[in-house]
Design goal:
Elements lengths: L16 E5 L4 H13 L5 E4 L8 H7 L3 H6 L1 E3 L2 H5 L4 E5 L10 E3 H13 L4 E5 L8 H6 L2 E4 L11 H18 L15 H17 L9 H14 L4 H20 L2
Parallel strand pairs: 1-2, 1-6, 2-3, 4-6, 4-7, 5-7
Helix pairs in contact: 1-2, 1-7, 5-7, 8-9, 8-10
Length: 256
């Protein structure tokens, strides 16, 4: 049995936000909270938990990690649960056909520490136990974190996945150096702003007849959203693109 190294300062400073999307079992929510608290992670969000919230089974399994459940935030839909975040990782053990950067857990957490040390708000998404994250959620993320597993048995429990992430976060934090970020003065658009930009872009493109044929509209919109989340868009970029789209709409109205 491993003896944990107790560190009283592990919850100091900014942290990533663990986001459970459509979690199913209260026991797995509790196990996730317990694993988080083992490594000093406190920020947990639930998006549309299947059995509602609060959940007595989650409380029972969380044990000493109940402080995480006391601090959690619940959201009824995916967009509201991530809109204030500046950068989001989607966790997945397999590719879903979307062109997006794929990082190892070590690489993703190292990148997380660098971003939050520069004041950015970072979330890590975990999907429901049965199926994992849907393509729509992955398309909204900036990058994918892939945890390597046995090819003959690739099923990781939700609580185990969160536990591994917490361990890697604390390990990375202990090793982190104060590396300057040459882009820390740039205001990067958060996920809420990217979502507004996507909605505006879809609206204008629909007016121009871009989405054709009908059978491909859904996949075209998904790929468009995936493209926007893959790009490092600043607040200035977003304002500029909104301005371009408004001008296109005005030009189209003058042509009528």
């Amino acid at each position: 049995m491993l003896t944990p190294e107790v560190n009283e300062n592990i919850i100091e400073g900014p942290q990533p936000i663990i986001v459970l999307v459509n979690p199913q079992l209260g026991e797995n929510i509790g196990a996730s909270a317990r694993g988080m608290w083992n490594f000093g992670l406190l920020n947990l969000r639930l998006i549309n938990p299947r059995d509602g919230w609060p959940n007595s089974k989650a409380t029972a399994v969380a044990a000493g990690g109940g402080v995480v459940l006391d601090n959690l935030k619940e959201y009824s839909d995916f967009k509201s649960g991530i809109k204030d975040l500046d950068y989001v990782f989607a966790t997945s053990i397999r590719q879903r056909g979307l062109d997006k950067p794929v990082l190892s857990l070590e690489e993703g957490i190292k990148m997380t520490n660098e971003m939050i040390s520069n004041g950015r708000k970072v979330g890590i998404l975990f999907g429901p136990e049965r199926s994992g994250l849907e393509n729509k959620a992955i398309a909204s993320a900036n990058s994918i974190i892939s945890i390597p597993v046995n090819s003959k048995y690739g099923s990781l429990n939700l609580g185990q996945s969160v536990l591994l992430t917490g361990y890697e976060w604390l390990r990375s934090k202990h090793q982190a150096k104060n590396i300057g970020d040459t882009t820390n003065s740039i205001q990067v658009a958060n996920l809420g702003e990217i979502e507004k930009l996507n909605d505006h872009l879809v609206e204008v493109l629909e007016q121009t007849g871009f989405f054709f044929p009908k059978a491909k509209v859904s996949s075209m919109k998904l790929n468009l959203r995936n493209m926007l989340s893959r790009m490092p868009i600043t607040n200035f970029d977003a304002r500029l693109i909104h301005g371009i789209l408004r001008q296109i709409a005005r030009w189209k109205d003058r042509k009528k």
